[in-house]
Amino acid sequence: MTPSIACPVKCRPHPRLAPQPPAPSLELLAARGAPAAGELRASRSPPYLSLSRSADSFESRAPCRGSASARRARAAVALGGDGQSAALIAGAQSRHAIFSDELVRRAFAAAEAAHRGQVRASGDPYLQHCVETAALLAELGAFPAVVAAGLLHDTVDDAGLSYGFISEHFGAGVADLVKGVSKLSHLSKLARRNDTASRIDEADRLRIIFLAMEDARAVLIKLADRLHNMRTLDSLPKNKQQSFAKETLEIFAPLANQLGILNWKEQLENLCFKYLCPDKFDELSTSLTEFHNRDMIAAATRRLEQALQVRGLSYYAIYGRHKSLYSIYSKMARKKLAMDEIYDIHGVRVILENKADCFAALEIIHHLWPRIPGKFKDYINSPKPNRYQSLHTVVLTEETLPLEIQIRTRDMHLQAEFGIAAHWRYKEVAARSCCTSVSEMVEWVRWVITWHCQTLNTDHPSSLARDASSKETHTIPSHSDACLLSYSKQCDHKGPVLVILLENEKMSVQEIPQHWTIVDLLNRSSNSGMPLRLRLNCHVVHNWNQELKMGDVLELIPSTPCKCRGYTREFHQKFDQCLAVSQS
Ligand SMILES: Nc1nc2c(ncn2[C@@H]2O[C@H](COP(=O)(O)OP(=O)(O)OP(=O)(O)O)[C@@H](O)[C@H]2O)c(=O)[nH]1
Ligand SMILES: Nc1ncnc2c1ncn2[C@@H]1O[C@H](COP(=O)(O)OP(=O)(O)OP(=O)(O)O)[C@@H](O)[C@H]1O
């Protein structure tokens, strides 16, 4: 007898990565890649909420209110917040049980006190943004610490709470996450000011830095923050909408894709599309009504399940997805096609045990629906150069619409999702350079996120997540000092090092060889004279001969231009000595 839609499957761990997080089940992959059959979302339209915001940032900043907000936050943590917040927390709790968690409730109280009086441009309380950011993380199934950090993510930058305060009340783990999000926000702001998104290579490098310099969970929180901000972009002036949308399209949506959070990626892209090309967005949305059938995938999936059962063919998963509007638009532009020439607006995927079952399923499918000539591809017998394997066919359904069906084994599926044929890589990096160590690092982060969400995911429970008691026994894996995929100082990874250079508020993302020092970088990049001082990751630099590492932010604070070109090590040794003497 055929099993139900998705039985838990033991997945093969990626052979090159250590330590391995527990492998994700196909159920999870289905849940994250596309809704499982029977769980299809009612509409693929992006949820455009009507929250609005102010000009330069997403909130109206209150005057310097750090110490007062810290006092209120301290009181709120002790007392559990004030009565006014009851409706917001109750709303959040009704959506996600995690908002009843003790740590999360205290974080809510602290965020409420810290942001009290701050409003969005729409007039909505700022706290609403914090709650929505945390709710997005809760939807992914994040740990309480991550949800708490989501609630607190702006309290350091925008409400004057300190790292020490958060660490004292919520632990160093939560404080580190908040600090990480702050760093990412800072870099993102610089990137917007410098229009980094317009320079593809720099945008690529910036994403890599984001992944390399922070705990993957801080990136998750930043993504959730950006998704909610994109959903509430309406009241910003047009130029701000454009710069947020541009940055989101080039940096945050690809990040979500690399991390395997496809649902967020699609929402971000659709929102960017709406703000960047409003006319095209409206035109395609209208045309799509002709080619889009909300119920077709669920109906086709049911029919296919029944047919497989009748033939006694077991399968691991069957699920479908509607292609997003932005993906349709991109494919039309890339291939110069009209909408009626896009055959995968509706798609279904079937995952089976072995090759023979794949071909048997193909035969069943071709009996169920007439095939569209010229659309069958046998990547099982003829794998793509990147080792992607699958059978693809397009059939015409009862609704007289094309349906693309992909058929593969679970190993082929894991290869397509996590291996060299991984979707993010196949889509985005083919045309761009991406060194092996960076690819591996992204794979690692993706595994971590997948593992993290699977373990905790409450909306799509897996065999692992069902046992609530198992939650606390897992912590997110991290690189050991010896791990080659880590970019920590101790590691001797083989790829280039990416650092951020700030000069007069101008930011550039620089690729430098391993073991380069600050002096090496200055010699290469500066032509505007000798900087008076340097700051590395916000600390004044005394030793200019120190090596730079992945994700370092080097700030040049210039003095008057000087005619001498080049910075010799000897000069800097002397300079350092002078500095040391003057500071002693
Ligand atoms: N992960 C992954 N998916 C792939 C790869 N190649 C194809 N696919 C999937 O298969 C779908 C269709 O691929 P093909 O049958 O080769 O079709 P195509 O030549 O791209 O063009 P169309 O037939 O117009 O879609 C893509 O939209 C992807 O979903 C790959 O290398 N890696
Ligand atoms: N037939 C299908 N059934 C289920 N999921 C699919 C199917 N085709 C693609 N997907 C998944 O849906 C997500 C979004 O796919 P999308 O159509 O945007 O990109 P794509 O498949 O690479 O298409 P293309 O390159 O043709 O534009 C990806 O995770 C992809 O693996």
TrEMBL record:
Gene3D superfamilies, per the entry: Beta Polymerase, domain 2 (3.30.460.10), Hypothetical protein af1432 (1.10.3210.10)
SUPFAM superfamilies, alphabetized: HD-domain/PDEase-like (SSF109604), Nucleotidyltransferase (SSF81301)
Pfam family, one: HD_4
Domain named HD: residues: 126-230
EC number: 2.7.6.5
GO cellular component, as recorded: chloroplast
GO molecular function: GTP binding; GTP diphosphokinase activity
Class in the EC hierarchy, top level: transferase
SMART domains in UniProt: HDc (SM00471), RelA_SpoT (SM00954)
Keyword vocabulary terms for this entry: GTP-binding, Kinase, Nucleotide-binding, Stress response, Transferase
An individual GO BP term: guanosine tetraphosphate metabolic process
Function: Probable ppGpp (guanosine 3'-diphosphate 5'-diphosphate) synthetase that may be involved in a rapid plant ppGpp-mediated response to pathogens and other stresses.
UniProt similarity note: Belongs to the RelA/SpoT family.
Protein name according to UniProt: GTP diphosphokinase
Organism: Miscanthus lutarioriparius
